[in-house]
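Title: [Solved] Phospholipid-transporting ATPase 3D structure

Original question kept below for reference.
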Amino acid sequence: MCSHNSFNNEMCSHSRCCECIRCCGRRDPRPRTVWLCHPEKRDQRYPRNVINNQKYNFFTFLPGVLFNQFKYFFNLYFLLLACSQFVPEMRLGALYTYWVPLGFVLAVTIIREAVEEIRCYVRDKEVNSQIYSKLTARGTMKVKSSNIQVGDLIIVEKNQRVPADMIFLRTSEKNGSCFLRTDQLDGETDWKLRLPVTCTQRLPTASVSSFLVKDLWFKLTFFEDSDPPVNESLSIENTLWASTVIASGTVVGVVLYTGRELRSVMNTSNPRSKIGLFDLEVNCLTKILFGALVVVSLVMVALQHFAGRWYLQIIRFILLFSNIIPISLRVNLDMGKIVYSWMIRKDSKIPGTVVRSSTIPEQLGRISYLLTDKTGTLTQNEMVFKRLHLGTVAYGLDSMDEVQSHIFSIYTQQSQDPPALKGPTLATKVRKTMSSRVHEAVKAIALCHNVTPVYESNGVTDQAEAERHFEDSCRVYQASSPDEVALVQWTESVGLTLVGRDQSSMQLRTPGGQILNFTILQIFPFTYESKRMGIIVRDESTGEITFYMKGADVVMAGIVQYNDWLEEECGNMAREGLRVLVVAKKSLMEEQYQDFEARYVQAKLSVHDRSLKVATVIESLEMEMELLCLTGVEDQLQTDVRPTLETLRNAGIKVWMLTGDKLETATCTAKNAHLVTRTQDIHIFRLVTNRGEAHLELNAFRRKHDCALVISGDSLEVCLKFYEYEFMELACQCPAVVCCRCTPTQKAQIVHLLQERTGKLTCAVGDGGNDVSMIQEADCGVGVEGKEGKQASLAADFSVTQFKHLGRLLMVHGRNSYKRSAALSQFVIHRSLCISTMQAVFSSVFYFASVPLYQGFLIIGYSTIYTMFPVFSLVLDKDVKSEVAMLYPELYKDLLKGRPLSYKTFLIWVLISIYQGSIIMYGALLLFESEFVHIVAISFTSLILTELLMVALTIQTWHWLMIVAELLSLSCYIASLVFLHEFIDVYFIATLSFLWKVTVITLVSCLPLYVLKYLRRRFSPPSYSKLTS
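Solution (posted by the thread starter after getting help):
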């Protein structure tokens, strides 16, 4: 092999450029020397090129899951309780009564986590195992994505994913460029243009196939030994980012970054284990119950006057009353979550919805802020040409045939080329003038763009033939902006078709089939700062040089000649939700252009202030341009976006739109989607760069009321740096907020700040890789899965196929999940408090002895087979039908206050439990005749019946499974009495005396509550009952 010194230096300069391009990196940028296909010569270690979205690995899985379980007070308490039974002085019953329930809880959690981890592993393995071709000195070889290293020369075929961050060296495309699809990264379906490094693209090759094997390698070797060494600057156009897809041709690139150093990975935060607010509230209630448990135990020992080994007595009482904190609560809630997830997946109204995180369905019922992406989430990213405005006349969709006839008449007249009429009528002159104006406008739109027509074989015609004959059925337009494609498709529909383009020329076809050739002399691409793009072309047939320009009305108003209609019409079209572009032209003389070109080339070679000098030269042309027309393009919204946003707004949810798109486009979409209502003002936060400007702008914003805010990412960064608290306070008061030009990291930062400042729950919705950080940071992440790829939906907690499904997901499933879990948790606590109250009464009557009331199987059976099914059937309960919940989103607003599970409802259930437990125990003590066994029989039977009746009292809408559960539990108890002769006198329960005593006790414990419930519904009904009656 030849020496690598010169290319080594060259790649060093490559890497310096690339390090500067990288954004959001976690380390300082350093130059990188890349050795082509010589990993042994590398001076530092680089990470493996593996994608890893798992939370644990094989060794950390069990410790990690157990740690996450026992870091919560609830589970740690039961672990200590179970361990205490190994000490003989503390043992109260069989070991299995403590270890079996705990083991079951842990087993359910471990299995659920394992299933989610395995799914994640399989998805990652699929990506890491993709096969690529690698160029070596001995030809090509196959290599897995995970085995690709820095310095490898990788061939990426059309429609193949780019496996790592690479420098683009070579393409098979004739026009010397390629297009990328970035939908997996940013959700945008428009294609991005990329250019190879000029010196590697220029290397001569006999054919595409030879360039794909040894030829390129040896040409590179030759290139490395060139004297003097070739130095070439790189720009973002020479890069191929990982996870983008090659849309045209076959490319060769050299790998620069792999694994965790990839740009997309560094822009994404690590996935975190999300814990629902509901689970934290339940955890808080268990701490209160533990406090009550300790107090009751201390009172019992105090009433014994701390006699003997009182400290052991305290521990025994704590164990005796341990039922106050029910272990079945965790089991019931976890199983409830699984049921809610199953219901979401099986809902035919939201097909394709996937629950990826089954631990937080209750979060969906309490969302206060919804943060959504724009492109691909609210919009389809499909542009439709809606309006052409010439000042005196406007053409809409219904009058495009008039535009077509004008174009047709111009070109038929030109082809016939009739002799000049002696005395043309006034009408002819007017019509001719209008035709020529329309023609000039359409021609400008057909020429001023960055669109490339590409021909593909359609099964009938092959690619080469289609390209030669400009076959319409084989042509697709490629561009970095969907707006431009829409404009070019429209010019095709009215008769002027873009049929060919390369770096230096363009071909248009007229309605008559004639080909018009234009030479591209200069292109001035669109930038965020300039808000316009321009092109200088020479018509080959006439030699005329024309400078065409299109851009936003704010900048074009100062460039075009004076007119009285531009501002007004732009405002009218913007109010209709259209994206408006102003199109203008200027004819140039040959000398004028030559003078401009000389100055332009000189400016481009400047070392200092190059961009400023270039802009100044271009601006010298941008004066007194002739205004041709306005174009109005609509970015079509996803289906039912408007009613969905309306529903969310009525439900008390504030919607923020975070997008990487331009300010004008974002504002347009916000109006179009009715994110901002017609009556609301919009405050556009002007660009601020320092503390003083930010202060003035915030003061100006503070004076506005009920006003939507539109702010750019740069201004946002300045505000958050100096006035974080003030800005968030003002923004949270807005009915809607639009943040444009946001980076992925900024999106996540906004979500975090909202959580921190408001303490409210946030939900993030997105569809591209640039939304992953935001989705993972939010309390509840929803990914929209569609043609934009799956990166966001795979990282999300919930995945939907359309934005409109979000309404039902929150209003119906979120609301039901939260209300059901609240009822279930309070009922399980009530069930355990009842039996604990009975134990307290029993111990106090029998001289404060730490003796259990119920032994062995009775205590386990009570919380499992005797009451488990009816209590768990509460997960099927609902207060209103799903149609009513969708029709009245105001019902959702009630949940935002957290009333279904609050200290007030908890206290009510505690009082009910104490009342019922006391009535049952005292009733049994009063009515029993001779033997202690009779107390157990009467009290336990009354307790079971009371629980079954209380479930019936709590249910709002009966389901057939609830009735089955009630009857099954009762049957299980009656049938098991035969085997419980150790605890219950079987002969006594068959007597009439037993039956009337149980009936009386049960009625006294339940009847007052039924009466209270009736009176409450009669005189103070809840809001939902008014809708169901």
